Amino acid sequence: MVSQQTGHGNLGHVVFIAASAAVGGFLFGYDSSVINGAVVGIQNHFRVGSVEIGFVVAIALLGSAVGAWFGGGLADRWGRTRTMQVAAILFAASSIGQMLPFALWDLTLWRALAGVAIGMASVLGPAYIAEVAPAAYRGRLGSFQQLAIVLGIAASQLVNYVFARIAGGDVNNHLWGLQAWQWMLGACVVPALAYLWLATVIPESPRYLVMAGQHQAAQRVLAEVEGEDSDPEARVQEIRHVLRTEHRPTLKDLRGGALGLLPIVWIGIVLSVFQQFVGINVIFYYSSVLWQSVGINQADSLLISFSSSIINIIGTFIAIALVDRIGRKPLLLMGSAGMALSLATAAWAFGFARPIEGTMALPGPQGAIALIAANLFVLFFALSWGVVVWVLLGEMFPNRIRAAALGVAAAAQWLANWAITMSFPAMSEWNLSLTYAMYAAFAALSFFFVSRWIRETKGRRLEEMG
Residue 315: exposed, middle, or buried by beta-carbon count in 10 A (0-12, 13-18, 19+)? Predict the structure, then answer.
């Protein structure tokens, strides 16, 4: 790899290790959204209804909440890279289990285990990248986590579409002894093994090394990522000074204030909840079912899902280009406004769905408007809340509580994700238009929350957060 020595360190090396850590985000995106293409296949194979399939999809999110809750503590106890290795093993094992289920309960358990790995990855990536990245590049490097997530989502939709096409347009058709949906779920084992290897070759976080008393090793890592001119010995002393005034963060350290938790922790929790309550993961977990419900065939609905994933990637690149230039807060405000308008438009269009020849369909103009509005929603989310929330969670908390607070905020995010994912099948059957109107209302509320409570963190060292 060609590297660039700058005043901010060996940039090529930093990019490599940040990208390696973000492979966990790729697995996060792939494993959480691959179910989109398998939903119909699972439903037909096990002959279950919307409530049961909603539970199977959403159980991974409860597992994710557990993984996120404990992930920060494990990272402080075992180290960031070793905990990544554990997550990679869980990803690989759960992928094989989901590929070869004996029954619905068996598939549900493997989905829950995959969720634990997803939750761990949701904590480990942002924390590790924030701790190794020079301040001038931290926003862009922190964006790698979300970029990896959207690439994982896109890869899963492309894999789903390819397997569906090879199987003749029906995910319940057999390929090489298994049904197509089983191959979709099992393909995640490949990136899981790559993540396991990368987690063994990247350096440990310098802040963890200082915490563990390995000061010489911390200096070597700091010299690698910040350059010799940064005075690694002085940086270690700076980190030691911060650590001497604090103890290893636990959940008890988050207590305080009138509502039981420190105000900054509540801000992180509410930020995480709003990211999910706008309904973004409905697009990535249920879009194939959503578009089939308004008259689009199975294979074409998977192609639409893939196109939404490409828009998601484009929006993420826009965010990466802007997050360190215009800051975190302006991007969030822009995204909230755009999401509220596009979701309200989609809600209006879905209100025109009518039964035609026994199946639901949208009239021509409203169908096109719904598709455009849904993709604009994805774009506005990707260029704002998709990237910025993860960047903020990695840097907004004081050092003394960062890992524990990030774990709690991420767990809240997964619980909010679970609530939206579990409720969507039943709510969409009841009234799809009002469901999207509810998501639009949450997007509008998020604008006012950001205006009042979010502080800008652009360009500030982690040791300055207080």
Answer: buried
> At which residue do the structure tokens 């010799």 appear?
228
pLDDT in tens, 361-407: 667 788 788 888 999 999 999 999 988 997 888 788 887 787 788 87
Q: Which pairing describes strands 359-361 and 9-10: parallel, antiparallel, or unpaired?
A: unpaired
**Model confidence pLDDT, tens digit, residues 262-320:** 888 999 999 999 999 999 988 877 777 677 666 666 677 777 888 888 998 899 889 88
Query: What would the two tokens of residue 66 be?
Result: 């557990």
**Matching residue, tokens 């940040």:** 18
Inside any domain, residue 463: no
pTM check: above 0.85? no
Q: Write the DSSP symbol of residue 401.
A: G
pLDDT for 445: 97
**Taking CA 339 as the corner, what is the angle to CA 261 and CA 119, rounded to the nearest 5 degrees?**
45
Encoded tokens for 82: 């070793």
CA 43 to chain centroid, in Å, comes to: 25
pLDDT at 426: 82
The domain spanning residue 184 has which CATH number?
Answer: 1.20.1250.20
Q: How far is CA 119 from the centre of its chain?
A: 9
Which residues face 255 on adjacent strands?
261
Helix (H, G, I), strand (E, B) or coil at 174: strand
The label of the residue with tokens 């689009």 reads 296
Name the pLDDT band for 248 (thresholds 50, 70, 90). low
Residue with tokens 């767990």: 411
Cα-based distances in Å from 423 to 41, 57, 135, 432: 20, 11, 40, 12
| Structural domain boundaries enclosing 43 | 10-202+246-456
**What are the φ/ψ torsions at residue 355 (nearest 5 degrees)?**
-70, 130
The neighbouring-strand residues paired with 9 are 6
Query: How many structural domains compose the chain?
Result: 1
